[in-house]
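User: Predict the structure for this protein chain, please.
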Amino acid sequence: MLRPVRGRLVLGMTLAGVGALFAMVPFIAVAEVGRALLSGGAVWPWAIAGAGGAVLRAFFMGASASVCHVANGHFEYGIRSRLARHLGRLPLGWFGDHGSGEVKKAVSDDIKGMHHLVSHALSDMTSAVVAPLVGIVYLLLVDWRMTLALLGFVAAVLAVVSPMLKRGYQAHMGTYNRAQAELAKATVELVDGIEVVKTYGGRARASQRFDEAVTTLTQRCLAWTAAMGRPATAMNIGLAPATMLVWILASGTAFVAAGWLPPADLLPFLAVGVGLPGPYLQVGSAANMLRQGQLGATHVDRLLGLLPLAEPAEPRRPADGRVVFDDVRFSYAPDAPPALDGVSAVLAPGTVTALVGPSGSGKTTMARLLPRFWDPDGGAITLGGVDVRDIPSRELLSRVAIVFQDVVLLRESVRDNIRLGRPDATDAEVEAAAKAARVHDVIMALPDGYDTVLGSDGGGLSGGERQRVTIARAILQDAPVVVLDEATAHADAESEAAIQEALSELAAGRTVMVIAHRLHTIAGADQILVLDSGRIVERGRHEGLLAADGLYARLWRAQNTEVKA
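Assistant: Here is the predicted structure, written as structure tokens:
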């Protein structure tokens, strides 16, 4: 994953290492100046070396930061581009099975975590390793016995504290990250449904899930802090400059008294040894950023490892808009009951086929298998005599126009929202599609007409008007097959009439599949398929199905009873 920027990272780490080497020079210079004053040696060379070391340290550290941040910019652009391309190749059904919070976490949160890894962690760890090594080498040259005494104290503190830190991290990091992911999903769900949440005073499921996610994350954070807090505090106290000073003075005094160490040689340990563990504490922080980056990289890598929608090795083009379901079987999971079980049907060009049935009967599944939201487990679906799996996904989607029950508009102009159906369409063609969808006059009444920027809320358009914008998009696409997912479900009577007119324009001469909940809207369909528990239990026209007095007739009577009531 880091391969494209590996060269820049190595350069940044090298510059950081050189900068860390020069960072130790001023401290060494202070110690040597003190020794020179006590012994009558030259002072100015060391003073100049200390000042030069400080300047060079600033230069190399700045250069390292610049190189690593440039590398991070290239890395983030590359990985986000890869994610966008890969997500675009996943089956459309994957996005319905997974919350948008998972995509947001990968594209935003995980890459932000890897930002610290690329921009800071690697160079910081290099500095944290090089600086103590330079200090240790210098102190060994001064007196190896005193250096071992100093290192022995540091090692003893780390030997006691490090295992506790490691256990605390391993025990809580996984649950903390899972709680973060759940909060991200719950936040997106809450924002998407904020109107409902506010209407019901916070009692909506999304609000409850958000509160639970916040509580869970807080508990995980507190548990992690409790597990890590005591050993971290003990390490900070044990390796603090004040503690190191006490140890160096105590052991140094003993060494001087025993005649093992000249008094002047104690100065390097006071100048350099006191701060020797400091970079190690930075290693802990940098290692934490490294782990965060690794966790983010694992999640991103898992997404990149998802199998994309299989593209045909030898693509074929459909002859027409004839759709055939041939003994189609499909389940959402290996151990789940079948959503479709042996479904067979023929949808002829120029006809309307309605899918009806109780909730969970398989209507939506059947409609979404046609544009390959998923691939069937058994049987085949053909378009124009060609298995849909043998049609390139871009070609297939260009031949199937879908009008969803839930309207989706992008934060773009009205013109660009309609032009999604055919990006190369002219302005005149866009306006012609809007007129056919009975929404042209509504658009012209907007502040900037077709250039008015809409949002996910429709930019002031009513629900029915927003739906007609999506119908204009489908009309512009001019696909031979149309899938309608109860496009009038949320419309009032006036809007429903306008939408029905627009749908009639869209359906003319095409193969139309309609998911119907309100049966009066499909009474004139050429073919009605009645599904129950994943099977087609009845098929025919409205009058014949009523006469058969089966499931369709019962649904019809139930709806008409409700209307009369």
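The chain has a mean pLDDT of 83.
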